[in-house]
What we know:
It comes from Sphingobium phenoxybenzoativorans. This is Probable membrane transporter protein. The chain crosses the membrane at residues 12-38, 44-70, 82-104, 171-199, 205-228, 240-259, 271-289. Pfam families: TauE. The chain is mainly alpha-helical. It has one domain (2-292). The protein is built from 11 helices and 4 strands; from the N terminus they run ββααααααββααααα. The protein has helices at residues 14-31, 36-46, 50-74, 80-107, 110-142, 155-158, 176-192, 197-206, 212-236, 243-263, 269-292, and strands at residues 2-5, 10-13, 164-166, 171-173. The strands form 2 sheets. The protein has a two-stranded antiparallel ribbon. It has a two-stranded antiparallel sheet with strand order 3-4. Strand 1 and strand 2 (10-13) form a beta hairpin. The longest helix is centred in the middle third of the chain and has 33 residues, at 110-142. Mean pLDDT is 76; it is low at 300-304.
Amino acid sequence: MDLYLPIANLSVNAFVIIGLGGVVGLLSGMFGVGGGFLTTPLLIFYGIPPTVAAASAASQVTGASVSGVFTHLSRKTVDIDMGIVMVVGGIVGALIGTVLFRLLQTLGQIDTAIAILYVLMLGSIGMLMAKESIQSIVALRSGVRPTAKKRRHHPLIAALPMRWRFYRSGLYISPLAPFLLGVTTGILTMLLGVGGGFIMVPAMLYLLGMTTQVVVGTSLFQILFVTIATTMMHSMTTKAVDLVLALLLLIGSVVGAQVGARISMTVRPEYLRMILAFIVLVVAIRMALGLGYRPDEIYTVQIQ
Length: 304
């Protein structure tokens, strides 16, 4: 079933877009990473203009996060205080990202900038995830359990002033640390349409020293509100949000997130991370090839 996307100015197969949203929602439910870092590249591969893909992907991340946040709230695995600080930082970052997005649009380099950032981001993340998952699988099969490390915030975090108590996370740290983390993810959300969970989750674990029980839920909480703000900013400034595309992605992502949450309880996390690392690296390689590939005919005329 083909549908016309008014902002993207092309027709797409509705079931394919719903399927893409479902796959990304599945990843969101399994890993708590929002999945948006794959939505934009997959839409670009399908033929959606990069600016429209990045702006519309944020709304898909919103839908996937809503479903996950309610699940984690019911389990009391969300640090509300920490999440609010990150949301404030995320909104500030989204405002900064808006200025950068408009500047790159004016220079005519936004599509190239999005593609380059994705290649660098996905390539580095994929290699780190692959390395960690391979080490975990080797240790699992050899029967040697790695020594569990005590969670502790980074020394730089401990040096920041104005400490607050975050009771749910079991932390006594400066709110500047989660605020700056929120600013970073807000900029990425605005530029790339990502939720930022792939950066937030490791940073919350290894920099802030949060307990693993509340990391995923708090990450999704922040992603939910920041992607809402980002979508509104895109609608008012870049006007690149395609509501039809966003709706199709939302349908798939909400269902996929629930399925992913159930799968995460039955499959060993080491194998899940390995599969995700492989997917991320394949997407990064495909985007890198797209940057360097020169078609035989730069301009084509298609008669329908």
